[in-house]
Design a protein that fits this description.
Helix content is 79%, strand content 0%. The chain is mostly helical and 309 residues long. 30% of the residues are buried.
Length: 309
């Protein structure tokens, strides 16, 4: 198990290098740069070139990238060009807001999806099954930003139950978490239903029923436990998708998280801040998937045996 974890951690290094290069290269291709917004209108070419040198934006792209990569390998993600603060400091200042939103959206997805998926599987080809699948399809197909605007129109502007944006108390978290978690709830519902249908038809569940075990215990203690592996897989990727997919939702609700910060960095051509945010998102997603793989071992001992080889 330890060798497997170490191997996965070492595999993160080339992934992070590739991600940093792609982001750095694409940001350089984008029209305009941060100098155009920072320099005075009457600035001369010499003054603009001096500003580029001070910010480390002079020289060829490859030279600038390897200079950035060298600092990155030392743990230094550089200074934000627009905020004049270390990228790591800005990221971890905004990250708790994004984490809070992602966790709340995960709770929304799980609370909706798991009971709905189990109900659909245990009432296969019934009205409840059809209703669950239609609801899941709506959640999957509905764009998050569009649902966010609908929620603002209904519950903020119309009923005035919740604020339309910003952060603060629990009320500010309700609408963003619903908008962000709805799509993942649809996916998780379909996976839960499919996994449960495969399990509840197994012979050992018929044997348990024949021994007089109640249907609730059969579903809760036997069927659900053995159906967890695909559910855990989707749950792990769901949490990573919620962290990365919060960009549009944070923008709509003016949520002060990393997604909104990344959009701002791209708009201002702050190449250091944008690259640092995306690299950190990649690290978090990779670690999340590693934790999911480790969780497999606690659900299925056969997988643990493969890790120890």
């Amino acid at each position: 198990m330890y060798r497997y974890i170490l191997k996965r951690i070492l595999m993160m290094i080339p992934v992070l290098i590739a991600v940093s290069f792609v982001v750095y290269f694409l940001m350089d291709l984008a029209p305009g740069d941060i100098i155009s917004s920072m320099a005075p209108q009457d600035a001369t070419e010499a003054e603009i070139e001096m500003m580029r040198e001070e910010l480390g934006l002079n020289g060829p792209l490859i030279q600038r990238y390897f200079r950035y990569l060298g600092n990155l390998l030392k743990g230094d993600m550089g200074m934000s060009l627009s905020l004049k603060r270390p990228v790591a400091e800005v990221f971890f200042e905004r990250f708790p807001a994004t984490l809070q939103l992602a966790l709340a959206a995960t709770v929304v997805a799980v609370v909706i999806a798991i009971p709905l998926g189990i109900a659909a599987a245990t009432h296969h080809r019934s009205f409840l099954d059809g209703f669950s699948m239609v609801t899941a399809m709506l959640g999957v197909s509905m764009p998050g930003f569009w649902l966010a605007l609908l929620l603002i129109m209904w519950f903020s502007l119309g009923l005035k139950w919740f604020p339309s944006g910003g952060s603060g108390d629990f009320k500010h978290l309700v609408l963003p978490s619903l908008a962000l978690g709805a799509g993942q709830a649809g996916t998780l519902t379909r996976i839960t239903r499919s996994s449960m249908l495969d399990v509840i038809r197994q012979d050992y569940l018929r044997t348990a029923r024949a021994k007089g075990v109640s249907e609730k215990q059969v579903i809760r203690k036997h069927a659900l436990k053995n159906a967890l592996i695909p559910i855990i897989t989707v749950f792990g990727s769901t949490f990573g998708n919620l962290l990365g997919g919060a960009v549009a939702i944070e923008t709509v609700f003016s949520w002060p998280g990393i997604g909104r910060l990344t959009v701002s960095a791209v708009n201002t051509r702050d190449i250091t801040l944008a690259t640092g945010c995306i690299i950190m998102f990649t690290v978090i997603l990779t670690v999340t998937m590693l934790l999911v793989d480790i969780a497999y071992a606690f659900v299925d001992p056969r997988i643990k045996a493969q890790y120890t080889k």
